[in-house]
């Protein structure tokens, strides 16, 4: 079976977990597990410290599904979403994203970073930004539930 996406990049807070919590967004764990089971390379690009992000993902039971987790460095420096998404892609071995590679996020900064790296900017409606704000920021789609990502696959 062909891989449904070349890769997928996720924001963490407000996207994989409910905003400001360690609780999974409904359907997010299942989406990650299904993508991983279908051999889709996965990365997290977050403004949270990497160690914290890894703990949160471990708490959800999905840390092993991710090839790369990039965020604020141990020195506390956050280089910005654009930079962490770039680093996440490099961690996946991607220098030029294939068409149809989505990035899911709940903020306009996520979408901007996605566009900057040639990713499909996909907003999520369960995070910190309203769908109309995400659409205005360039979201190709705004998901009401993680399962809706499947409707964006190429084939
Ligand atoms: Mg977020």
From TrEMBL:
Enzyme class, one word?
Answer: hydrolase
Does the record carry Isomerase as a key word?
no
Report which superkingdom the organism of origin falls in.
Bacteria
Keywords (A to Z) from UniProt: Hydrolase
The GO terms this record gives for MF are:
hydrolase activity
Enzyme Commission number:
3.-.-.-
**A Pfam cross-reference name:** Hydrolase
Protein name in UniProt: HAD family hydrolase
Organism encoding this protein: Actinomycetospora chibensis
């Amino acid at each position: 079976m062909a891989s449904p996406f070349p890769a997928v990049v996720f924001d963490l807070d407000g996207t994989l977990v409910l905003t400001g919590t360690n609780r999974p967004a409904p359907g997010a764990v299942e989406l990650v597990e299904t993508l991983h089971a279908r051999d889709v390379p996965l990365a997290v690009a977050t403004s949270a410290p990497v160690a914290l992000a890894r703990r949160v993902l471990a708490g959800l039971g999905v840390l092993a599904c991710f090839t790369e987790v990039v965020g604020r460095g141990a020195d506390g420096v956050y280089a910005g979403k654009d930079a962490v998404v770039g680093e996440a892609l490099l961690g996946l071995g991607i220098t030029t994203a294939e068409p149809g590679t989505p990035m899911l996020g709940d903020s306009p900064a996520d979408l901007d970073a996605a566009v900057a790296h040639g990713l499909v900017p996909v907003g999520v409606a369960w995070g910190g930004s309203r769908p109309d704000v995400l659409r205005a920021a360039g979201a190709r789609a705004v998901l009401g539930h993680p399962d809706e990502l499947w409707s964006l696959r190429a084939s």
